[in-house]
Amino acid sequence: MRAAMPSFSLQRLFTLPGGAAALLQEQVLHAYAPPLVALGTALTLGLIGWAAGARWPVASAGAAGALTGWIALLPVAAALRAVLAPRAMADFLLLPAVAVVLAGLASPWLRGRAERWLPVALAVLAGWWLAGSAPARPEFWRVWLAIALAAWLLARVVAAQGSAGPGGRVLAAALALWGGLLVAGAPPVWLVAALVAVAAAMAAWPLGGALPPLLLAIVAAAADLAAGRLVRAGLNATDLACLLAPGAAWLMPRMARRFGKRLGRAGTALAVPAAAALMVGAVWLSGRLLHR
Question: Which of 26, 57, 172, 174 can bridge 252 by disulfide, Cβ–Cβ 3.0-4.6 Å?
Fold first, then answer.
């Protein structure tokens, strides 16, 4: 008697043995859920502000998206503890993000000196907060000064006048940071953290908002601190990824002017990935030359 042929099943075809499917699903969710959370939060707030004609939801959309995306990196029960008593380096991103969200909510009522000096105060406080992490404590003052200065310089570059708005400049820098860290072989947690910044900036830009430059600066500083490079001598690909990313914010409006002469508004959109790609290429080439 002939044995019955096993029935064909697509589910059986794509089933991985030994729990590999569950592991793959967990890894995919861990990698893509936080950026999707950031994208959804920023889009929701931005659309609410656009529909209601209110400024504060648009002003805080990028920061709120980044905050919720970084929270999604952690277990729900650990999120509050990570804000107030951080342990891992990625936990240090949360409290500055909370402060920036609150500043965005208050932005419609800020005028004059308060509006000008609040970003500076936030940069100083964020530098102090990250400098208190375990990797930075041996050189607390130097790390504090370096982070605060980097955040202030990036904010100045983004705020420069021009046809390209700040949203596109920050998005170009975020893309450059993510691509540079990818080329440098950074740990997955920092690739996801940078991708959260990309998603938040991408959602805020079309609606007239922007990811606050301070949040991008602290991602770069935290990734560099986690690699142990910001407090040591020498230079490697991770340092270059963090140092060259702001260059995309400077380069993007210049490329937008050139592309815009032939492509119009599409030229501005094309300038964002083009500027980021140039910086990522510079990171890759420099890393090869340094052999690190």
Answer: 172
Q: Please, what is the end-to-end C-alpha distance for the chain in angstroms?
A: 66
More confident residue, 105 or 14: 105
163 in any annotated domain? yes
Quick one: tokens of 58?
Answer: 């648009």
Instruction: Count up the domains in the chain and report the number.
Output: 1
Find all residues with CB under 8 Å of 273, minimum gap 6, and list them: 172, 175
Identify the band that residue 275 occupies on the pLDDT scale cut at 50, 70 and 90: very high
Tokens 């050189």 belong to residue: 139
Classify residue 286: in a domain, yes or no. yes
Handedness of CA 62, 99, 249, 289 (dihedral sign): negative
Question: Is 265 contained in some domain?
Answer: yes
Residues 56-69 have pLDDT tens digits of 788 888 899 999 99
- The conformation of residue 15, written as its DSSP 8-state character, comes to P
- DSSP characters over 98-124: HHHHHHHHHGGG--THHHHHHHHHHHH
Cβ-based neighbour number of residue 17 at 10 Å: 6
- pLDDT the model gives residue 233: 54
Answer for the pair 148, 165: CB distance below 8 angstroms, yes or no.
no
Q: Model confidence over 168-189: pLDDT tens digits?
A: 899 999 999 999 999 988 888 8
Residues 210 and 204 sit within 8 Å (Cβ to Cβ): yes
Q: Give residues with Cβ within 8 angstroms of 178, minimum separation 6.
A: 191, 194, 195, 197, 198
- Tell whether 14 is covered by a domain: no
Write the pLDDT tens digit of every residue in 221-274. Answer: 888 888 776 655 567 788 888 888 988 998 988 888 888 777 777 778 888 999
